[in-house]
Amino acid sequence: MKPELIEHFVAHFDHHDARLGADPLEVSREMRERCPVTHTDAHGGFWVVSDYDDARRILQDPATFTNSKSVRVPAGPETRPLPPLEYDPPEHMKYRNIISKAFSPKNIAALEPAIRALTVQLIEQFRAKGSCELVADLAAPLPTTIFTELMGLPNADAEKFHYWATMINHQAHEGEGAISAGEATAQTMDYLRVILDERRADPRDDIATALVQGEIDGAPITDDDLNHMALLLFLGGLDTVTSAMSFMFANLAQRPDLRQQILDNPEIIPAAVEEFLRFDPVIMIGRAVGADTEIGGCPVRADERVLINPIAVNRDPSQFEDPDVLDFSRDANRHLTFGIGPHRCVGSHLARLELKIVLEEFHARIPNYRVAEGHTLHRHMNQVNGLDALPLVWD
């Protein structure tokens, strides 16, 4: 990225601007060093936090930094909140408890054989070819298939689900026949309503059934809450692990020394997963200011928007020694990729397990690989960021 464009983003940070994808790391570093709490005029204005301690305090203080006014930055048109994410405590926990059992460590651990079998199946489909497009061939279908089965959605429509999630989360409206985020949202919700209606008539052992059978204060969940709750799970379950897995393999494809550490000592894989999560976080975390307060000495007013930039926060040198180095031996890896506090990601156990298994099974079969010659990695930015494609080759 040219110096003048870095200067532009430091002063006018905009995670929706496609140009930021060229080097969000350098922009984030400059912001953390020069203005760890700053205000940008993009989209009508919002605050950007690049300091770890301030970010942690914000996430643990839902009374002052609320989710109830939407976590999107900028807020956009007023829409129905997505429970439980866009509800504050204590209402938040009433909704979260309905789905938390499905994502408990015990229940997620029970999925390991199925996740491992699917991972091996996907890898074997391209292993002999000597190449793959990692995003399309593995990073997208693996978490999509696992989540659709958990949710109770037909796997035959998995490709459609991933398309909708991409259009919504990344606002990727390019290409022939592409639809807008609004259109994708409407189509997704129409589809989910049909599934929820089916579960009312025919309950099964899946999350969709848990939703329709759930109660809030002794009463069934309203249809509006139910539909939006299903939409939130759909968006969170189908896209974020894809991006995390893509970033992980992009790093490994360019670092044979890191691959060798995994090959020589597979026991480090859980620690490697945590380090990859720290190094390349996926979600830009938004909050609304609930009451006049301050962040890092800067006065902020009620109803203003705050964006926590985890790309900067997870590389804060006050918290992480040599933060720009991928270090699988890092102790006390207190990254904020999954958030912290009451809204900590409910699917974190599932994400960790999927990433762990894919590292184990991929390297057991394809130990040495590289990015295809001539390919330039393109990182797309938005509220959720990721890689468009990752072509890998091996001998």
UniProtKB/TrEMBL annotation:
Residues 68-87 are annotated as: Disordered. One of its GO terms (molecular function) is camphor 5-monooxygenase activity. It is an enzyme of class 1 (oxidoreductase). The keyword Hydrolase does not apply. InterPro entries: Cyt_P450, Cyt_P450_B, Cyt_P450_CS, Cyt_P450_sf. The keyword Amino-acid biosynthesis does not apply. Keywords: Heme, Iron, Metal-binding, Monooxygenase, Oxidoreductase. CDD domains: P450cam-like (cd11035). Its EC number is 1.14.15.1. Its cofactor is heme. It comes from the Bacteria. Gene3D superfamilies: Cytochrome P450 (1.10.630.10). Belongs to the cytochrome P450 family. This is Camphor 5-monooxygenase.
